[in-house]
Amino acid sequence: MGLLRSAQNAEQSKGRATQGAEEASAATAEIDLLAAASGQISSITEIIAGVTRQTQLLAINARVEAARAGESGRGFCVVADEVKTLAARTRGATEGISDQVRQVGTVAVASNIAQAEEIARSTEAIATDVVETAGVLKVQADSLQNQVADFVLRLRSVAARGSGATPSAQASPASSASSAALRRRA
């Protein structure tokens, strides 16, 4: 019964270890995907931010030119204000995208922390199974050792009865060998 329990514990430990390895691999893959996506989004966001800065500069230049043109540049000034407003909205949207990317990264990190905690729990369960299996094996080894010792004592007792010697004479291997030699000579 003890060996069956040890085998079951070993199988459970193997299953948990496999599950933990799969979870760790999945978490690593998710982190890699998020890192790649985050890098791509950051690149796009930087491009948009650059376009926004250039648009703002163009809007400022347009206002300066409209001011120089005086009354005839008034319409151009309205267009420059609209371009400036669009640039500000684009900057706000770009910052919003950057914030969302950071939040997604934070959620992903939290998710991966939860997975790491689950892996740690699995590892603890494996360690518990290993300790329990070792305890069962020790009990079995001790029991087997006692059974062997009892068997040896019984063999000595049977041998002593068969040769007429006392069990205490059988306790010494040297006296056993000399008794056997004497019987062969007789």
Q: What name does the CATH topology carry?
A: Helix Hairpins
Q: Which CATH class?
A: Mainly Alpha
Inertia-based shape:
rod-shaped
- What is the CA–CA distance across the termini? 50 Å
Q: Tell me the series of helices and strands, N- to C-terminal.
A: HHHH
What is the helix content? over 70%
Number of helices: 4
Strand content: under 5%
Please give the number of β-strands.
0
Largest sheet: none
How many structural units, i.e. domains?
Answer: 1
- In the predicted model, the low-confidence regions spanning at least 5 consecutive residues are 181-186
Q: What structural class do helix, strand and pairing data support?
A: mainly alpha
CATH architecture, by name, is Orthogonal Bundle
Computed CA radius of gyration, to the nearest angstrom: 42 Å
Mean pLDDT: 75
